[in-house]
Backbone:
């Protein structure tokens, strides 16, 4: 009986992870195809009414969205957590009477670590940081996709646009932890097993926003994120590389050709540990100077490097591993 339960747990974990992996890149296009298809059927009134409502509701994503505890607490997320397994580590308190910008590194292929940790309660974020609400900030264009926008808002995601960040940091009270994957599309192309590279030397916009609203900066590192998949790396100047760069310029993200452990899509079983660092106190400067932005950006990079070095051994890396910041 025990063996059967183990096999069933393994099966459920695999199905749950497959669902998560397929949902992130494919659910959006599937929603678009479905709505267009329905427009040419006898059910054309349904997508028509939805599009009218979506137009009326277009500002909701940038006004805090519509997060629901029901979606964030789905049992499927705990199965995703157990598949790797995935763990959240707290190194310092986050005061619920303050707001924060959490910079999450690295992007990885699909940012599964960030998604599971900050858009669900599978890793116990609210238990570790009582009174603090995590909000993963993602591409604004995703909130224009019919139906898909409802799903990402339900998980607590918000656009990574200036109006959205401004609303969350000035009109949604305190205890907001805005999670931004700083490296973005450029960093996803560096996602190679055993490599710890982040793109952020020229990424200073999040620091400027933090200064404008007095939100403390918090570095976060997801050990194991780059080990989930094996990416096909195209040489610079090749046809594949040029296509990725063009797609990234147009769409805001880069398509990655990758393979998993099995079934092509299934990620490798690799421990993933998301470590939340100590807050960097940031003053309120409605119009920060470039010198102030550079100063706190430098403090953030130093804090990120320190966080990486302090926890790399306990998270499965050797002492010789170094963090490459570009």
Residues:
């Amino acid at each position: 009986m025990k063996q059967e339960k183990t096999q069933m747990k393994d099966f459920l974990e695999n199905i749950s992870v497959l669902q998560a992996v397929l949902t992130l890149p494919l659910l959006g296009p599937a929603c678009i195809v479905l709505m267009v298809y329905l427009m040419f059927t006898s059910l054309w009134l349904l997508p028509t009414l939805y599009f009218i409502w979506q137009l009326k509701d277009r500002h909701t994503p940038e006004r805090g969205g519509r997060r629901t505890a029901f979606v964030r607490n789905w049992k499927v997320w705990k199965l995703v957590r157990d598949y790797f397994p995935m763990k959240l580590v707290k190194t310092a308190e986050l005061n619920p009477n303050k707001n924060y910008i959490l910079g999450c590194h690295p992007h990885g292929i699909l940012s599964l670590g960030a998604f599971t940790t900050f858009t669900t309660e599978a890793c116990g974020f609210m238990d570790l940081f009582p009174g603090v609400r995590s909000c993963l900030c993602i591409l604004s264009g995703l909130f224009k996709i019919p139906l898909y926008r409802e799903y990402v808002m339900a998980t607590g995601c918000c656009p990574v646009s200036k109006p959205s960040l401004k609303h969350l940091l000035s009109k949604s009270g305190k205890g907001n932890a805005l999670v931004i994957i700083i490296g973005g599309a450029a960093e996803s192309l560096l996602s190679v097993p055993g490599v710890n590279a982040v793109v952020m030397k020229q990424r200073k916009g999040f620091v400027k926003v933090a200064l404008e609203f007095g939100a403390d900066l918090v570095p976060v590192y997801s050990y194991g994120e780059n080990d989930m998949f094996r990416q096909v790396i195209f040489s610079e100047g090749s046809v594949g590389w040029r296509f990725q760069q063009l797609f990234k310029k147009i769409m805001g993200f880069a398509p990655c050709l990758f393979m998993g452990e099995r079934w092509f899509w299934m990620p490798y079983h690799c421990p993933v540990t998301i470590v939340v660092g100590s807050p960097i106190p940031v003053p309120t400067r409605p119009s920060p100077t470039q010198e102030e932005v550079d100063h706190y950006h430098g403090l953030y990079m130093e804090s990120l490097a320190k966080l990486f070095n302090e926890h790399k051994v306990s998270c499965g890396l050797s002492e010789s591993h170094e963090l490459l910041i570009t």
Notes: The CA atoms of residues 108 and 131 lie 29 Å apart. The first strand starts at residue 86 and ends at 90.
